[in-house]
Design a protein that fits this description.
InterPro entries: ATP-NAD_kinase_N, Diacylglycerol_kinase_cat_dom, Lipid_Phosphate_FormReg, NAD/diacylglycerol_kinase_sf. By secondary structure, the protein is of the alpha+beta class. It is built from eleven helices and 19 strands.
Length: 313
Amino acid sequence: MDISATEPTTSTAIEGPITIIANRKSGTNARDAEAIDRALAVFGADKAELRHWDPKEDLDALVRSAIDDGARLIVAAGGDGTAMAIASSMLGTGCAMAVLPLGTFNYFARGLNLPEDPEEAARAILAGYTRDISVGMVNDRVFLNNASLGIYPAILKERETVYARWGRRRLMAHWSVVKTFLQFQRPMKLTISADGKKMDRRTPLLFVARSAFQLERFGLTGGEAIHRDQFAMLVGLGDTRADLFALAWRLVTRSMREGRDYELICASDVTVETAKRRALVAFDGEKTRDYSPFEFKMSDEKLTIVLPKDGPA
């Protein structure tokens, strides 16, 4: 996520009512519930309220209700998936959004340089300032960190099946990767139009990044493109299962190299046509099967995000 291309809308601390929105399932987790209580204490009982959301419920309606009730700041309490969902509902509202990181990876919150401790994060939010940013869209769905086609969405799908049978364990997550690779048949055939330039590619993975922090975390290039408010599009190089295992190992060991393991394409407006009429697309850990072509673009409406004073420039 790039935040350097626009000016802050204000440099003052957040004032006014605060609404924390937490995933209902996460909110019942003892650790998350305790973290939210600690953050509420920092925000102030007379200033902040907690509202729970179930993914089956209308999040747009919940966000509108909070704003209509006077909220000046909405805090997404959860991981990247929760932040993405709430950001999608807050585009163009003008109401400020902040993130209380409670997830596993928290790439979006960490990219904003927010502390991972809930009390410290709440203090940083209260003392922060707001900035209007553009977010990534794929077929009109918001993503904050990345969207992808190919082997990664397939891993997420397989992981759900494995978790349902064996439980949510780290070993099962690793097994879902191995099982997906073993089932790999052939790379995708894609026609990519990047800022008007058309190209054909065969690849097992198309990874479209909007988080410079996430790229840096794994030793991948493309951060400069994101700072220019573009997408960093990584096209995986490899045709076989052995290639996939090699790519996975190099990703884990942060030894992937541009040109050997992936091709980097930088663009602001991207259209991807798949050989199949429909394909699985993942965005910030969520996934859906959608019709080709897939259009990646920056949002027309802005998201007003809270940044800590010692956050990125």
